[in-house]
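Give me the 3D structure for Cupin domain-containing protein.
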Amino acid sequence: MWTLALRGGARVAVVAAEWYDAFGVVTRGRVQLELRDGEPGPVLGRDAGFWLRGTGVRALRNPGRRTARVRIVTPRARTVTCQSTPRTPVTE
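Predicted structure for Cupin domain-containing protein (92 residues):
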């Protein structure tokens, strides 16, 4: 499990090979799903959960000014590198 922090207006690409089994929960702010064709998708608020597998989502975007946070849960642990947005590991 890890947390993705998206600063206001930030966008992070969803690479299918890295995110195919990820489940996200918005824990702060709002996150907009960007669809495969580049069209804006739904805006999800706090406590909204979403799967990325098979959805055609190509990016996550923060439409607000304040930092949004998404907790990402995957069934297996792995290391993922993302240069555009830092990820903060979460330990429980």
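Residues 80-92 have pLDDT under 50 and may be disordered. Let me know if you want a second pass.
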